[in-house]
Each structure stands twice: as structure tokens, then as C-alpha cells.
Amino acid sequence: MAIEIRETPIGGKLDDFLDVVDDIYASDPCFVRPIDMDLKNRLSKKNPFFEHGEATTFTAFRNGKCVGRCSASIDRGHLDLYQDDVGFFGFFDTVDDQEVADALLEAARKWLTKRGMKKMRGPLSLNINEELGCLIEGFNTPPMVLMPHHRPYQAGLIEKAGLEKIKDLFAWRYEVGHVPRRAQKALVDTEADDSIKIRNVDMKNFERDIRVTMEVFNDAWSENWSFVPLTETELRQVAKDLRPILRPELTFIAEIDGVPSAVAMALPNVNEAIADLNGKLLPFGLLKLLWRLKVKGTKTGRLVILGISKKYRMVRRYAALSAALYAKMNAAAQTLGLEWGELSWTLEDNVRINAGIKFMGGKIYKKYRIFESEI
What we know:
Layout: E1 4-9, H1 15-24, H2 36-42, E2 53-62, E3 65-75, H3 76-82, E4 86-94, H4 98-114, E5 119-122, E6 134-137, H5 154-160, E7 164-175, H6 181-192, E8 196-200, H7 206-220, H8 232-242, E9 251-256, E10 259-268, H9 270-274, H10 285-296, E11 300-308, H11 310-313, H12 321-336, E12 340-347, H13 351-359, E13 363-374
Parallel strand pairs: 4-5, 11-12
Antiparallel strand pairs: 1-2, 2-3, 3-4, 5-13, 6-13, 7-12, 7-13, 8-9, 9-10, 10-11
Helix pairs in contact: 6-12, 7-8
């Protein structure tokens, strides 16, 4: 029986797109189904991504049964920066069937081709600032918050469909508790420097501090491969999304002479709290989630941001600032009862950052791959 591909435009009914993962990952104890409400909002015009991007979704059917899904997207913010005619595919989840994978990726190619794209890259959920990469190592542990998970065969399906590796990403596991002596000294030296002040996010001025964090993020990551800065409306959406889950103890802003110049942000691993909700917040899922996050707490977390503004990155006086932030994050994690954390993601060829994480005791425990092909 031939594969039938159905397209659902943004804002359309997503039941099949959301539910197909139940069959695909039925035998995978590590899979955590994302919250349906969150995905529906992201795949609707409510998402500020659509102020500068466009997208669609595809589902694959065989004998009337949904057996896979995929999205296709174009980010004009990316195109304006890189002028490379690259479009994206994402949300790529299928049964172990090459015909299904080929049909979904071909549908994405055709959609991108009609809009003038000459290359297809992915998986990226919508753009570089959302979930990205196909898991290629580390299938034996659940994904962290805002990180993807795949079956071991998925990368092979993408390769056989004609795409090739363009970049690998690393996720590092860090056991809370041990801080190298040099990092401890870095914290002591930094705290003795009167020009540096490190503080937590102020929940009474939450949007202001998230704006500060993202402004430093946009500066510090501006030279990273394929980086696209957040827009003003995306920044406000990030603040809205983070407020219910963020622990201020795990977010640091370092000011140099009163100017925010370095940031570190970790999130409690929400996936611990939603693993048994099967994507549903109603009728009682939301109460369970809030209780687990605010009262019970999580045992793991994910460091999503740690960076220093370019102006100070190579200044000898502030060379120890990143190690100091690591040390403060470790202490905060201990206070909150976290056992270990994920530092993710980093580019495989970001030698300086990877060396710093390794120095702190991090070990690569997951790898993700991004693929690309000419259209």
C-alpha cells in the first residue's frame, strides 16, 4: 500500500500529528511526550516565530493509520543573515520504514522548493532557537527539557533519504558536587573583584532580567554557527514561557562596572514532572506539574545558557568569570537537591567551550546530528 501524505497548515487540526508518537515510541521507556498544548501553541499563529517565518506540517498514512510526521519551515531571520536559501525540516518522527521517511522528507523538499529554497537542513523544530538535531548516541536516558529524543533507526532513515551530516551537537552530563580547585579559586577571585557583581534573576523584575539575559545571549552567541537572534516579541514569549518553571537560584547575571556582561541559566528538568502525563495537562496534569516543580522539585536540570559578552571574553582580568559561574551554579544545584545536570547543547567544533565543560568534569553522554541536502 502506497504512503499517503497529508498536509496540515499552521493552525489546522493536529490530532494525528500529536498522537502518532504514541505508536512510534510505544516500546521506548525513555520517551517523554511533549505537552500537547505547548506544541499546539507553537504550531499556531500565536508563535512569534511566524512574524518572520512560515511553516507547515505533514503526516504520513499507510492503510489509513498514521505512521509518521514532519514539518517544513522557512526562517526569514536566518535568510536575512546568511543569504544561503536554506529551509528546514523538523518534528521528524516515523516508524522504522524507509518509504515513510522518504515520503515525508520529499513532501518537505517540495514545499521548500516552491518557496525558492535550495537546501534543506534538519531536524530543527522550526528554527535554530528551538529543539534541533537527531539523537545518534545516548538512547538509554530520557531527554532533558527542550531537547529531542529519537529511536536509534531515525538517523539512518534520514541518511538513506539522501541527506548528509553537516554538524554534530554534544550534550554533557555533569555530576553535581565536585568543583575543580581552579574553578573554586576563580570564584574566590571573581568575588574579590569590586568591578564584578553576580546576582540572581529578580522575580519582581522578571521580564527586565530575562531581557538582560537574552541581550547578553544574543551578543555572546552572535558568532556561533547558524545563530539567529531572538526578536523582541520572541523575547517576551520566552519570558512568559519561563516564568512558571524558572528557579531564580539557577539563573545568574554578572555585571561588570554595573553593566550586565555574562549570564548563566539552568532550568529544572520539566520532563521529570511530565513523563506520566502523556502530553495532557487536563483535567489534573497541570496541578501535578506545578506541585512536582514547586513542592517536590526535580533531581535533574539543564544548563541552557552560559556566556560572556564579546567585549569581555578575551580580557585577562575576566578570564575566570565563566568558571566562577559554573561554580556558583554547582552550589545552587546542591542547595536545591539536584543530583546531576545536562549542559547542552554545544557544537562539536567549539573547542574552547567543550574544553571548559570537560575541565569542570562534564562528560559527553548524548550526541545529536543535523543533516543537510541540496534540493
